[in-house]
Design goal:
Layout lengths: L7 H6 L1 E7 L3 H10 L7 E4 L9 H4 L17 E2 L12 E2 L21 H11 L6 H11 E3 L23 E3 L9 H11 L16 E4 L4 E2 L4 E2 L2 H5 L2 H4 L4 E4 L2 E12 L2 E11 L6 E11 L2 H11 L2 E2 L1 H6 L6 E2 L11 E9 L12 H14 L11 E5 L23 E6 L12 E8 L9 E3 L10 E3 L9 H16 L8 E4 L11 H11 L1 E2 L31 E3 L14 H18 L3
Parallel strand pairs: 1-2, 1-13, 2-10, 5-6, 13-24, 14-15
Antiparallel strand pairs: 3-4, 7-17, 8-9, 11-12, 12-13, 16-19, 16-22, 16-23, 17-18, 18-19, 20-21
Helix pairs in contact: 2-14, 5-14, 12-13
The protein binds flavin-adenine dinucleotide (FAD).
Subcellular location: Secreted
Catalytic activity: a pyranoside + acceptor = a pyranosid-3,4-diulose + reduced acceptor; pyranose + acceptor = pyranos-2-ulose + reduced acceptor; pyranose + acceptor = pyranos-3-ulose + reduced acceptor; a pyranoside + acceptor = a pyranosid-3-ulose + reduced acceptor
Enzyme class: oxidoreductase
């Protein structure tokens, strides 16, 4: 049931079983699974508007127009990033039902087996291991045929996918003119350029077809809103969703077992001055995402007592790690002007073509607009005997886990030039070093003020730039394959280094051009039960408190070696099972 302003008196007097803060990627998973039990009455409070009927959020190819600086974006900017020559970096986050899954660029990657086995080791909870999380990846996933219905045999491994879940995934929905060239390049190069049937099996090393959260038959974005809050679920009488409702804080009115118990949330509607409350008899679930969950915690007196005192906020639960330990992925894109008129660049600047592509998408669910940003993706591990690791710890999560990702786009990924056709190859540093940790801090005692975000990009001097250099060299090797010989004309930016560039030239390029891939995690990190640091226990429960769990990407103690949404869906599925088990009696 979608609620509106006129339901507020009812919201204030209802004793919900669960109140979920944030109708984003993770929040909607929990809302859906808990309301499978008709006895659980659930309220979701989402700060942003509804996503219903917004074409830009539905058409896959329009994903690059949903952020930054739009109505569906929190429109954040980081503080100055020393690793990027002091740049202030745009930092989008979804501000809409479905959260960041409604605005992201659709890439579906899970990370490696070693990532999850490291979570299990670090948290002392085997439930976080790859073998125990794979069923949750599958539970969330609905692998669908691609929109063009091409034969996908040999393009993915069905045994590692789910076909009955609520988040749709598919292979590219329209062929591009570079597909064959890319395949030829991999065949020609060898070395790190090997084939991998399915990079989402837990063993991601090698290259293969990209998978995206696109529902093939409708050629539409699959978000946590379109999937987990689909019409049939919104008809449940026990599921209540209120949009434009921004939570300021969670409130504790009593203690339980000697610790503060949180049962009530405070929020405003439509940016107004009046504060309303809603209460849960069983649990509050904080799913406001890796930038906003720590902000809501700190507004509530949960965090570093000394930081909170700077803003006059009384300490209720002293947890110094709230907002700390932020891990993000640095990304850099290299681009070339190409001898072709078959790239997608014209679709990014010619409004007549855009109208045509949109009409084709509406009429047939085919064509350019059915595709996301990439056709092929791959993962590379720097050899263990690399000189980078002589004096520095190898930051990979374990054996078989990559250091960087490479993906290929049939257009210039970034600001579109007014003319020309382009190829872009992007690389993401998947393993930021131990010192590349940023933070989220309060900037004001106003609970609705924008927080201070430090993304920690390229902040670890021991490994970050050295590994990024290897990643850029790998991209340059890929672009030098004979298959591109009569295709690539020249670098789009004359400052872009070539294969014979010195390390100093590469470093300058890297520090100048690296930006965030927006895979923010860690700010409400899980640690072992009873551990000194951390914010939540392995079962998502806030430490030193009762009645509150955190379920979103902020709980991951390290960033996975892949884009972060698949892991977020899987962890939310697991959390929902744990919450149900707690209240099964
Ligand atoms: C531009 C961009 C592109 C990306 N591309 C990819 C990609 O291609 N593939 C991939 O795997 N990952 C991608 N990511 C990352 C991925 O989408 C996120 O890691 C993931 O969706 C985070 O899920 P979450 O549940 O933690 O947070 P979110 O999905 O952000 O959910 C948080 C929700 O809480 C709401 N909220 C916040 N504060 C409050 C409050 N005070 N009161 C009420 N509600 C509140 C928000 O509006 C939001 O709806 C991308 C991220 C960005 C920003």
């Amino acid at each position: 049931v979608m609620l509106s302003e006129r339901d507020l008196p009812h919201v204030a007097t209802t004793n919900y079983d669960f109140v979920i803060v944030g109708g984003g990627t993770a929040g909607n998973v929990v809302a859906n699974r808990l309301t499978e039990n008709p006895n659980f009455n659930v309220l979701v409070l989402e700060a942003g508007p509804s996503d219903a009927g917004v074409l830009a959020l539905q058409v896959p190819f329009l994903c690059t127009t949903t952020t930054p600086q739009t109505l569906w974006d929190w429109n954040y900017t980081t503080v100055s990033q020393p690793g990027l020559n002091g740049a202030l970096v745009g930092y989008p986050r979804g501000y809409v039902l479905g959260g960041t899954s409604s605005v992201n660029c659709l890439v579906y990657t899970r990370g490696s087996k070693a990532d999850f086995d490291r979570y299990a080791n670090f948290t002392g909870d085997e439930g976080w291991s790859w073998d125990n999380m794979l069923p949750y990846f599958k539970k969330s996933e609905k692998f669908t045929p691609p929109s063009d219905r091409h034969n996908t045999a040999g393009q993915f491994d069905p045994s590692v996918h789910g076909f009955d879940g609520l988040n749709s995934v598919s292979l590219p929905g329209a062929p591009t003119a570079i597909d064959d060239r890319f395949e030829a390049a991999i065949d020609q190069l060898g070395g790190e350029f090997t084939w991998n049937l399915d990079t989402n099996s837990g063993s991601p090393l090698g290259f293969g077809w990209s998978q995206a959260v696109i529902d093939g038959p409708s050629a539409s974005r699959s978000s946590s809103s379109t999937g987990y809050l689909a019409r049939e679920f919104l008809l449940r009488p026990n599921l209540h969703v209120l949009v434009n409702a921004q939570v300021s804080r969670v409130i504790s009115e009593r203690t339980r077992d000697g610790v503060p118990e949180f049962k009530t949330v405070e929020f405003r509607l439509n940016g107004g001055d009046t504060l309303f409350t809603a209460s849960a008899s069983k649990e509050l679930i904080l799913s406001a995402g890796a930038t906003n969950t720590p902000q809501v915690l700190m507004n509530s007196g949960i965090g570093s007592a000394s930081h909170l005192s700077e803003h006059g906020i009384p300490s209720i639960v002293d947890l110094p790690d709230v907002g700390e330990n932020l891990f993000d992925h640095p990304i850099i894109t290299l681009s070339w002007r190409v001898d072709s008129n078959m790239t997608y660049d014209d679709y990014k600047r010619n409004s007549a073509l855009q109208d045509e592509a949109l009409q084709t998408w509406k009429d047939t669910r085919q064509g350019v607009y059915a595709n996301g940003i990439s056709q092929h993706i791959g993962f590379v591990r720097v050899p263990d005997n690399s000189s980078i690791f002589v004096n520095a710890t190898n930051p990979a999560s374990g054996p078989g886990s990559p250091h960087f990702e490479i993906f290929v786009s049939n257009f210039l990924l970034g600001a579109t030039p007014s003319e020309g056709n382009y190829l872009s190859i992007s690389t993401i540093l998947l393993t930021p070093g131990d010192n590349a940790r940023g933070s989220v801090k309060l900037n004001s005692s106003d609970p609705f003020a924008i927080p201070l975000i430090d993304a920690g990009l390229l902040a670890d001097d021991a490994t970050d730039v050295a590994l990024m250099r290897e990643a850029v060299k790998s991209v340059l090797r890929l672009a030098s394959a004979p298959a591109w010989g009569d295709y690539i004309i020249e670098a789009a930016d004359s400052a872009q280094p070539g294969l014979n560039a010195t390390d100093a030239q590469l470093d300058t390029f890297i520090r100048t051009n690296t930006r965030s891939a927006y895979h923010v995690v860690g700010t409400s990190s899980i640690t072992r039960k009873g551990a000194e640091g951390g914010v939540v226990d392995p079962d998502f429960k806030l430490k030193k408190a009762a009645g509150l769990r955190i379920v979103d990407a902020s709980v991951l103690p390290f960033v996975p070696a892949g884009h972060s949404q698949a892991a977020t869906y899987a962890l939310a599925e697991r959390a929902a099972d744990l919450i149900k088990a707690t209240h099964s009696a």
